[in-house]
Amino acid sequence: MRNKLLILLGFAFTISLSTGIAQTSGEYFNRAARSYVKTEKDQALATVKDGLTKFPSDAKLQALKEKLEKEQEEQDKQDQEKQDKQNQEEKQQQEDQKSQGEDGEQQESKEDGDKTNEDKAKESQAGDPSDKNEDKPGENANDQMDANLADKQKAMEEFKEKLKAMNLTPEQAAQILESMNAAELRYIQQNKKKATERPKRGIPDW
Fold this sequence. Notes:
This protein is mainly α.
């Protein structure tokens, strides 16, 4: 029984060995062609190379190998071109975004500069408030002088009434009034001169 089992195993091994040896170049070609039709180009190329190791001079296997390698090379080239194009588009997009950002910053800077110039123009048109107020001291002095003159005139009228009550001669009354008028005139001229003079800034008025 044991001998029969060994004989059967040996027979099966012999059949399998003979089957492997009997595989022809045409079978390798057909297997590679079926893989190629299924778009399994890597598998097809591997089968062709395997067949050429056993049948290196087979013309059909060599032709199929050249075709598969050429298509593989073209496919790699297309993939590389596609990748390069994608990289170029991404780079261009980044440059465009950077350029837009710089243009935006320049526009903002220009707007800020325009606003600053407008503010300066408004300030120039408005003028220095201190210049507008320079005449106020003179105006106040004129008002004070007018008030003093009114008081002086009132006092003069009262004094004239007193002169009449003193029963002076017309010559004496005229002489006194002339002296008073001369003194009043000098007083008015002095006050007008002081009112028209502007005090110098930063210098005490004494």
